[in-house]
Amino acid sequence: KAGYLQREKRALLDRHRGLSAKAYGILKEKEDVLFRLKESPALRSPKNALIKSGQALDIYVKSMYNSKRIFIHAADRRVSMAAALLDSLSPLRVLDRGYCLARRDGSVAAAETLEPGDGVELFFADGSAEAEVLSVKREKWL
Questions:
Q1: DSSP for the chain?
Q2: 111, 135 Cβ separation under 8 angstroms
Q3: How far is CA 3 from the centre of its chain?
Q4: Is the pTM value of this prediction over 0.85?
Q5: What is the CA radius of gyration of the chain?
């Protein structure tokens, strides 16, 4: 019976040492966390941390504003260039350069559809006129 009690006592002491070591490890970890928190600039001087955060936020806001402005400017340039291209391709711009547009029955007239005596309407930049086809030459110009 004495040997049994000795073994139980040793087992309890071993278990006590193991639990004590674990408890010490946990306490040491928590102590380290508390030390790091205590040394944290945000906790040592919360006002300075807020000021720094506010300054960083100001920088980000200005950067976003500038990025937005640059993006909008680039988009505006693309729209302006597309509008200029469309304007240069407009049939009305061709009329401004001294050409006219011939229409027959509401459609643009092609030489292959015209015969002498047909009536056409001519559109100029400053007005229109009605004309009669005298002759037709079917030649490719382009």
A1: -HHHHHHHHHHHHHHHHHHHHHHHHHHHHHHHHHHHHHH-HHHH-HHHHHHHHHHHHHHHHHHHHHHHHHHHHHHHHHHHHHHHHHHHH-HHHHHHTT--EEEETTEE--GGG--TT-EEEEEETTEEEEEE----------
A2: no
A3: 80
A4: no
A5: 46
Write out pLDDT tens, residues 77-125.
999 999 999 888 887 788 888 888 889 888 877 888 889 999 999 999 8
Q: Report residue 118: phi and psi, to 5°.
A: -65, 145
- Residues 141, 110: contact at Cβ < 8 Å? no
What's the token pair of residue 58? 């100001």
6: burial class by Cβ within 10 Å (0-12, 13-18, 19+)?
exposed
CB atoms near residue 117 (< 10 Å)? 8
Whether 114 and 123 have beta carbons less than 8 Å apart is answered as no
